[in-house]
Amino acid sequence: xxxxxxxxxxxxxxxxxxxxxxxxxxxxxxxxxxxxxxxxxxxxxxxxxxxxxxxxxxxxxxxxxxxxxxxxxxxxxxxxxxxxxxxxxxxxxxxxxxxxxxxxxxxxxxxxxxxxxxxxxxxxxxxxxxxxxxxxxxxxxxxxxxxxxxxxxxxxxxxxxxxxxxxxxxxxxxxxxxxxxxxxxxxxxxxxxxxxxxxxxxxxxxxxxxxxxxxxxxxxxxxxxxxxxxxxxxxxxxxxxxxxxxxxxxxxxxxxxxxxxxxxxxxxxxxxxxxxxxxxxxxxxxxxxxxxxxxxxxxxxxxxxxxxxxxxxxxxxxxxxxxxxxxxxxxxxxxxxxxxxxxx
Length: 344
Prior knowledge:
Elements: E1 11-13, H1 24-50, H2 59-78, H3 87-116, H4 121-155, E2 159-161, H5 167-205, H6 208-231, H7 240-282, H8 290-339
Antiparallel strand pairs: 1-2
């Protein structure tokens, strides 16, 4: 999934024979200064979100970007064409308009979708697709202005040279690839993560039917995830996120196949004990036979064993779950920190 806008940062060698009023390099510089700054601001914004800050938490930054982009657009509209040629100026205006629309509409929707993204796998997938689409629109806008920028330079004898700021474009391209890999694996992780929550909810409600249904669904999502991971291409040979996800899925599989059996045995033993206890206590003490006492004592032993197995298994599962998820988050953070360029 792409979260970064690709737009090459360019500076110029001015035509030495041109006067300032008709210098094509200066004319280009008048516009490029504006959209280069927008590019840098968008890099900061998208990088902040991608490095763990939610879109809602940086909502103020989005509002500031809208104001900056609108001001840049209005400034471009006031400019005249170069020797009556308005194509380059109009392409700059169009660029700002496209960015403005994406910030106002697409990212407003993304902020809303983010609030419900974790409610289901489908909601999370839709949220990520919306971010993809917004990024693609911005990327296309950047490619458009680059084409017009280079075309104007070529038509007017301006030599374009790249300086240190042009590396920003390379950082954006790298970040796009990193987050493509990250999000592909994240969706695999999230599908089983969410399904386990459904299973835990069913266990909490002691709904046997729902437990069996969600247990089978979890086994299915784990198997599906394991198959999908075989098709995931590594980023620069880094297996860390795949391995962390595989370990977590193995835990889910073991929990669904073995751990749930212990829980169901506890529910069965507890239910059986409740029935025997009710029948035992319904008889007066003088009417109780030795078989009644033996049956009751056996039920007590069985439920105690089931309780001990349940508590032991539950404690082990909770520790393992916490450890695996904590490890996944650490690995994911390390992966992005290692591969996503930082700084301008």
